[in-house]
Amino acid sequence: MMLGTIRWNIATGIIGFILTFLISYPNNVLSVTLKNSFYSMIIMFVCMFGFRFVLGVLMDPGKQKEDMQGEEQQEPAKGTTIDLTTPADTELRGGLSKGTLDDSDDSPFTPLNPPKLVSKVKNGTPEELTRALRQMSEK
């Protein structure tokens, strides 16, 4: 499924070796330059295998279609259709309105009764209100 031949890998490796050697030689010792160039050649050689494989997959859709058609004859494709019908209300509720839920408690439902907020000072005098305001601002 790969596109091209091994010559592409060898050519890419040699180009990587030469470029790395030319760029690295003015700044490094010869042994370091050769080592880095060799590593570059190996990396470029291996990466070219992946690149050729990806190109082979992208450039050969005819073979993939033939493979897909053979699979479709054996088994229908799953997930290729969308059901656009709206379900009935009873299906959406799932039987919740019919009381089919199983309660583990025998006690009936009791709503919460939170305490009501009531001010302690009802229509207080202005002096009491100012004193309360001063106490709150001091804290």
What does this 3D model show about the protein?
Helices cover 58% and strands 0% of the residues. The chain has 139 residues and is mostly helical. The chain has a domain at 6-74.
Task: Furnish the topology, listing elements before pairings.
Layout (H helix, E strand, L loop, with lengths): L5 H19 L5 H30 L1 H14 L14 H5 L32 H13 L1
Helix pairs in contact: 1-2
Number of helices: 5
Please outline the major beta sheet: none
Rg, nearest Å: 39 Å
- Listing every helix as H and every strand as E from the N terminus to the C terminus, the arrangement reads HHHHH
User: Any low-confidence stretches, pLDDT <50, length ≥5?
Assistant: none
Question: Given the helix and strand composition, which structural class is it?
Answer: mainly alpha
Portion of residues within helices = 55-70%
- The termini sit apart by 78 Å
Give the overall shape, derived from the CA principal axes: elongated
The count of β-strands is 0
Q: How much of the polypeptide forms β-strand, as a percent range?
A: under 5%
Average pLDDT, all residues: 79
